[in-house]
Amino acid sequence: MSTYHAFTEAEAIAYARRMPDLFAPDSELTSREIGDGNLNLVFHISEPATGKSIILKQALPYAKVVGESWPLTLDRARIESETLMIQESLCPDLVPHVFAYEKDLALTVMQDLSDHVIMRKGLIEGNRYPLFAQHIARFLANTLFYTSDLGMNQQEKKERVKQFINPELCKITEDLIFDDPYRDADTNNVPAAIRDAVETIWNDRELHLEVAILRNGFLTHAEALLHGDLHTGSIFIKEDSTKVIDPEFAYYGPMGFDIGAVFANLLLNYAAQEGWSRDEQARADYRGYLLGTIKEIWSLFHGEFRSLWSLYGVDRVQQSESYQDWYMQRLLRDTIGYAGCKMVRRVHGLAQVADINQLQDEAAKERAQRLALQIGTSLIKHHRHAQSIDELLDIAIQAVK
Ligand code: SR1
Ligand code: MG
């Protein structure tokens, strides 16, 4: 048993050397800490002679993005590794393989994905990923269906809910997504140029009601085992492969929260095209690609989820067509509402996105921020009335007209 302490690069090498069957005991290894997220250390260990490599991910006992003043449970490393193993059993090609998890060190040893890029970076560079919609729709359909009361034994599911109680990480989401952006909170990071638009949000009672309804769903609706933080920084991608990483926020929550997270991050990039595209035609083309991807994801997800349900549904009472229709419409509405919340928090909340923040042209950045707020708030306000995914797309299209 090892006592918890944050690893140095040299300690990461020493640990990797002890892993059976990975590296020869006397081989030369290199180590680089490459973590650029908000919470953890990530060591890339490689053996130059053979080209073999692995990742050691270690949770820190505080939120790295803020510092030691924000303590954070190490149990999130267990949640992450156990979630990855469940997801691997459902869609093995869409998540990294976990070689080992060591509780006392809050350490997970996993497959190295350095031949992929973080999707947020790929989108900022203007790349297109033709297989992404298929991959993420399959990931969402399988992970959400088979961990819910529709697709697994309902008593075992209750045990799973217990296994994935994740109060500290959920609290971050409850505050940073569903509370702080709607008031003048210390955690916010309000860009001076858009203060007027942010203050409008702080005073918008109609909006606050819709956010309260969505927050209630996040607090109480233990529907499926969610990834819990499914933004484009949690996706490694290349032309022919997609890998979903980092499920440390996993817990039993409303399915629409994960689907909405994917849509929100595509829409944040859509807003950021104000500054990234070379000219109007390129901007319209790339925005068309992003909206087409959202539409394709919803359509493939919807088809796959319903077909899993019809073939493998475990609950006779929930099997009827009309119940499935009702359920999918509610899921669409949740998805649209959560997508809106996930956009708004990234504009003036604590943790923002590179798509917008890396824009060098201040005027373009301001236009992108205002657009993201406009689309996000419209999605939140519309969500309980939505009938079709086209309404989400229309909101995005109207916002740039
Ligand atoms: C204090 S953690 C801030 C954000 O980083 C994570 O990726 C989550 O999105 C969280 O809200
Ligand atoms: Mg993360």
From TrEMBL:
Domain of life: Bacteria
Cited NCBIfam families: MTRK
Pfam family, any one: APH
Residue spans crossing the bilayer: none
Family annotation (InterPro entries): Aminoglycoside_PTrfase, Kinase-like_dom_sf, Methylthioribose_kinase
Binding site for ATP: N40, K57, D246, P247, E248
Catalytic activity from the UniProt record: 5-(methylsulfanyl)-D-ribose + ATP = 5-(methylsulfanyl)-alpha-D-ribose 1-phosphate + ADP + H(+)
Pathway it works in: Amino-acid biosynthesis; L-methionine biosynthesis via salvage pathway; S-methyl-5-thio-alpha-D-ribose 1-phosphate from S-methyl-5'-thioadenosine (hydrolase route): step 2/2
Gene Ontology molecular function terms on file: ATP binding; S-methyl-5-thioribose kinase activity
Organism: Paenibacillus piri
Protein name: Methylthioribose kinase
EC number assigned by the record: 2.7.1.100
Binding site residues for substrate: D229, R345
Family indicated by similarity: Belongs to the methylthioribose kinase family.
Assembly information from the UniProt record: Homodimer.
GO annotation, biological process: L-methionine salvage from methylthioadenosine
Keywords: Amino-acid biosynthesis, ATP-binding, Kinase, Methionine biosynthesis, Nucleotide-binding, Transferase
Function: Catalyzes the phosphorylation of methylthioribose into methylthioribose-1-phosphate.
Aminoglycoside phosphotransferase domain ranges (all copies): 32-269
